[in-house]
Protein: Tol-Pal system protein TolB
Organism: Paragemmobacter aquarius
Amino acid sequence: MTLFRTLAPVLALAVGLFVGGTVQSNAQDGPLRITITDGVIEPLPFALPQFIPENGGAGDYAAQISQVIAADLSGTGLFREIPASAHISRVSSFDAPVAYEDWKAINAQALITGAVSASGDQIVVKFRLFDVYSGQQMGDGLQFVGTPATWRRMAHKVADAVYSRITGEGPYFDSRVVFVSESGPKNQRQKRLAVMDYDGANVAYLTDSSSIVLAPRFSPTGNQILFTSYESGFPRIYLMDTGSMQVQSLAQQEGTMTFAPRFSPDGRTVVFSLERGGNTDIYQLDIGSGQTQQLTNAPSIETAPSFSPDGSQIVFESDRSGTQQIYVMSSGGGDATRISGGAGRYSTPVWSPQGDYIAFTKQNAGRFHIGVMRSDGSEERLLTASFLDEGPTWAPNGRVIMFMRESAGAGGQSSLFSVDISGRNLRQVTTEGPASDPAWSPLLP
């Protein structure tokens, strides 16, 4: 397998506080907050004057960082940017007093101000967030220090801080997605592993297209990727180190095929499917010792295993009842409990980072859906419907799901989409060409 392009280097960002303690809003209607529910949410209007360049080399960075922050927030469907043409007040200095009445006049509820300086191989980004109607700053101001190569990460960090302070949810913008980049005609599709920012930017290719690759998965720390490759002529699971780009084959056994791998929460164990003699069961592998343990033993197909966040359980799909359904068992194996109960077939289950939901693919009445259910199978909710939706993956905060959608017909193409867990804000993720099998990374350090 030829590796010909490395991951873009990621520099740990220095973070600093530059104002006093957190100030709570005292607005009449309470602190500025979006509560994410299953109902329709009116996007919160925010103003983001272009960040101020504090020296001659910072102008382009200030403009680009401002654009990425606005796109991150608006892309959630929870926020609506008020265009600069509507601004009454102009921010000419980062430390200038806030003209709250001017921002109230255009119905801005949140105001984000910031500044950027650039010198040599260092960029400094700082910002403040204000609750316009209470006339208060929300939380401490933050400062991020990085290199020119990390300016987009700093923009995502700012957007993450704003998002978390207003919604109370965890951040997810400063993350990456590994996926299968596709090219060529549908009946001779070439596939290679690629990685990108969550929004489709900064694509890097990890393998060439000499072998079919499937189902990449990040480790809990983001420094390793599991995937399935047909390099040997049969599906086998491989482990890639994202720093050295070294690749090793795992769990090789003569006369078997291995696929659908996924890490345990501590990153020390891999759970996967192994096919031998026409029967497929779930196994786990200790990465350090190489020892394997069989977890299921049934005359049926058991695949797509996924650990619960605490590592105590595994959810998987099985056709032991006659059709594909979702089951949960102890991480040590043993008896399994079926949790899917609706009409149709269920597959590709994956536990959310918070452990509150399991996402899945459902096929019923000629349509495919991405859905979520509680870990006991209750509260099933379908989020999408199309000719072919499959393979959900969770954002680090457990509020957004990315998946693959394929269009119908001989010329059908696969694309990546995202949707929040209430079923709102279905959006296509921009990629350079057809794409499938997305897997979200943890939040970057």
